[in-house]
Amino acid sequence: MRKILYAFIISIAAIVVLNQLVFKEVPEKEKKELLTETQRYIHPVKSISMEYPDNSDLYVFDSILKDNKVLMLGENTHYDGATFQAKGRLIRYLHEKLGYNVVLYEAGQYDTWLMNEEMKKHTLKVPSDSIGGIGLFGFWWMNRETQPLIRYYQKTKSTETPIELGGFDIQPSGGVLMNRRARLVREFLSKNRIDAKNFPLFGKHAHELAYFIYDGYTEKVLKGNEKNELVKEINQLEQAVLKLDKIPENIMYARYFNDMKNNLTKIWKYKSGSLPSMHFRDSLMAKNLIYQIDSVYKDQKVIVWCANIHTFASRYSKDYLPLGAYIKNKYKEASYMIDFSSYGQLSKSGHITDKPGKYAVENLFHETQIPYFFINLRNIPQRSFLRKEFVSTINQGMDEKKIWSRFCDGIFYIDINKTMTPLNK
Question: Which of 13, 259, 280, 350 is the 20 to 30 Å CA partner of 44?
Answer without folding.
Answer: 350
